[in-house]
Amino acid sequence: MIADGIFANIIDRDTIDLGVRGELIFEIEKIRVLCGERELPILSCEEIWTTNALTEGWVRVIRVKLGEVIDICAQYRVNILGLGEFVAVPCGIFDTDYFKENYTYDGDDLGAYVSGNVTNFKLWAPVASAVTLKLYSDGEGGEAYARIPLTREGFGVWQASVDCGHGTYYTYEVTNAVGTQEAVDPYAKAAGVNGKRGMVVDLSFTNPEGWNADKALSHISSYSEATIWEVHVRDFSNMIKNSKYKGKYLAFTEKGLKNEHGEPVGIDYLKELGISHVHLLPVYDYASVDEHTCSNFNWGYDPQNYNVPEGSYSTDPYHGEVRIREYKEMVAALHEAGIGVIMDMVYNHTYDANSNLNKVVPYYYYRYDILGRNTNASGCGNDTASERYMFGKYMVESCAYWVGEYHLDGLRFDLMGLHDLATMQRVEAAVHGINPRAIIYGEGWDMGATIGEVAQANQKFIGKIHPTGDAIGAIAVFNDVIRDGLKGSVFEEETPGYVNGGADEESWANVLFGINGGQENHRASWSVPDSMVINYMSAHDNYSLWDKLALANPKDSEEARAEMNKLGAAILMISKGTPFWQAGEEMLRTKYGDENSYNASDKINNMDWSTLAPGTIQHDTMLYYKGLIEMRRGLDIFTKADVSIAPQSLANRAVILTFTDKNGGKAKVIINPRMKDFHISLGEEWSLVADENLAGGSVIRRESSAIVRAVSMRVYINDVLLEK
Ligand code: CA
Fold first, then answer.
1. Which residues pair with residue 9 across a beta bridge?
2. pLDDT class of 295 with cuts at 50, 70, 90
3. Residue 105: helix, strand or coil by DSSP?
4. How far apart (Å, rounded) are the C-alpha atoms in residues 290 and 276?
5. Spatial separation of the C-alpha atoms in residues 509 and 522, rounded to whole Å
6. Each residue of 66-111: pLDDT tens digit?
7. In 3-state terms, what secondary structure has residue 264?
8. Has residue 428 got a pLDDT over 80?
9. Across residues 625-647, what is the average pLDDT?
């Protein structure tokens, strides 16, 4: 269709732009436009040179004005004598008032809705000339047992009401300018194995026992109160020896699991550790793991069916309702343990550019340059177009569906800077309308000017999003400033940060930016209101913290590196904003030096629970994290928004931070990033609640002076806080 360098783009009802690759030379008199065998009158061909942010350099464009109005469902061909024929595709026309007025569909009934033995199918396919519903008895194999043409209604919606019920597998065969393709309904909520066919589902049949009583967390009243543990479903349980459900959703439901040293693992461990939320790496249906064999591994950033749970994590990927039920069982078990569930949403790109969305409405859901090539700011090959109304609507409805149907406690957005602010505001309103305590955050990196800088939901502009109704927050962003400030840049593996030998003016300023919850300061290029930052040292991307410390601090002992790790965690736990870390950071998790393990082996990615044995540095570090979490939970001076923080510098980048709340409560935090102990007098007696070994809710001792150990933090509180 874009054969050899010309992109014929229908930009309006009587206009086709031909984007021409530089080296192609032809005379504009040789252009003809055909529909079937009929030639359309051409009024003018204007040669323009143009560029935009999506295209490198200048591109020659021939703007062809037609003497008649085209039909967006018909196929038009541009014939250039000597070069050949190019199919003209509706693309630019999607942004015209004509298209928006005639084909914006605001109904909430797209998809397949079953009632008894009748299912209503609705698909938005405004440029299709025919849509056929194909019904199958199974999720794979065999021929369709019925082919039912859909009827076109208003706004480009196609529909059929069919005698079929729960458990019917289906696809759509859609014909439009680029040809006829079979697609899974983008709105499908269940699917067969490997997500190749949708399934009609009566969701009431997917609820585990007691599901109606299950509720999202009710005790979180600000984002700062959350402590988020980022985990991959398969990594979590693969190495739990006596788990019956290794690598599956159901492993989160197994109580009483222990490792070979008798230490609790699995969900019991999470409960003991005290985290408030798990953040699951992608659990929507992604394409790259074969659900038949589960023989390969992937993180899952390759979305296929956005509203369907991933099948490889279920005990039976062949029956579409099973993965839904087991996902709900996982959520219910975590809720019962007092832990919330946050899901990773990856709407910014799809597994491939010709996704189900693209098969149904080609060129609508993605961003293209003038030559019809997908833009690739994501690095994944195809950036989606949230600013197109029907994709924004799709995102909003998809998020609301997951949060509502699965009782979720939050959403995380991959490469959120690729989405537009207006859509993210609608997502916020929809999600918080269902669960006002949901924690919403994303990667707010600056993704370049693919949609015009001001509109992007990135770190710089996320503060424009406001919380809706009773929402406990708006949308937070990952804070790479404190991440790199604490342990050194993720892009320079040998560079240390504030806690591992690189304490200097710059690293301290970056750390302080996180402690202050991303408040405006003279150094940072961005800031956010209301502490809408996710403060962290490690996530699935880049080296695990333990591996980074090995690279940046090769001469230090493992014990010394564990102290660095602990100091970093301690700083996150006294910071405004939300502490976050990769599962296992608290037990010095290694990925054996693999910086990008997205499709590496299970061995590289698995959490190794056997390292938890009393007396090991892994176990000691875990206990320290546990204490820090308890301390943060018990002392709201570290989570309240109206607390002021006064930093005072000591020699060699050591600092004292004084936290003051409006009731006279005070906390003093002394941080020593040096490799040497130092002595300090506090003037009066304070209650020590955390030092280099211990942290928690209770007082270790009272003291008026102390030795602050190398690479450590001490936390003191005054009597006002003590009495609370
Ligand atoms: Ca899958």
1. 17, 89
2. very high
3. coil
4. 32
5. 10
6. 999 999 999 999 999 988 999 999 999 999 999 999 999 999 999 9
7. strand
8. yes
9. 95
Q: Which of 173, 420, 443, 585 is catalytic?
A: 443
Query: How far does residue 599's CA lie from ligand 1's centre (Å)?
Result: 14
For ligand 1, the distance from its centroid to the CA atom of residue 484, given in whole angstroms, is 34
Nearest to 702 by CA among 713, 715, 688, 712: 688
Asked if 559 is an active-site residue, the reply is no
Q: Where are the beta strands (DSSP E) in 564-677?
A: 578-582, 644-649, 655-660, 666-672
Contact present, 499 and 487 (Cβ < 8 Å): yes
Write down the pLDDT at residue 1.
Answer: 42
pLDDT in tens, 450-483: 776 668 999 999 999 999 999 999 999 999 999 9
Cα 377 from Cα 386, distance rounded (Å)? 14
| DSSP E strands, 101-239 | 111-115, 118-124, 130-136, 146-149, 151-152, 157-163, 169-176, 179-183, 198-199, 228-231
Angle at 176 between CA 171 and CA 179, to 5 degrees: 85
pLDDT value for 53: 59
Residue 352: active-site member: no
3-state secondary structure of 277: strand
Contact in structure between 335 and 216 (CB atoms under 8 Å): yes
Ligand 1 centroid–CA 296 distance in Å is 12
Whether residue 587 has pLDDT greater than 80: yes
Torsion of the alpha carbons at 416, 422, 425 and 427, rounded to the nearest 10: -70
Ligand 1 centroid to Cα of residue 719, in Å, is 55
Give me the residue label for tokens 């609507």.
393
Distance 337 CA to ligand 1 centre (A): 28
Distance CA 596, CA 604 (A): 10
3-state helix, strand, coil in the chain (%, to 5): 25, 25, 45
Percent above pLDDT 70 for the chain? 98
pLDDT per position as a tens digit, 15-59 = 999 999 877 788 889 999 999 999 999 999 999 888 765 666 788
Report how far residue 549's alpha carbon sits from residue 15's, in angstroms, rounded to the nearest whole number: 59
Rounded Cα distance, 479 and 512, in Å = 12
Q: Where are the alpha helices (DSSP H) in 488-611?
A: 505-515, 545-552, 558-573, 602-605
Residue 183, phi then psi, degrees to nearest 5: -130, 150
Q: Which two tokens stand for residue 479?
A: 């804070």
The Cα 35–Cα 74 span in angstroms is 8
Q: Report pLDDT for 326.
A: 98
Ligand 1 (single-atom ion) residues, CB below 5 Å: 195, 285, 311
* Mean pLDDT confidence for 229-256: 98
- Per the prediction, the chain carries an average pLDDT of 95
What's the 596 CA to ligand 1 centre distance in angstroms?
21
Q: Which of the residues 383, 414, 586, 691 is marked catalytic? A: 414
Q: Which tokens go with 27?
A: 């005379």
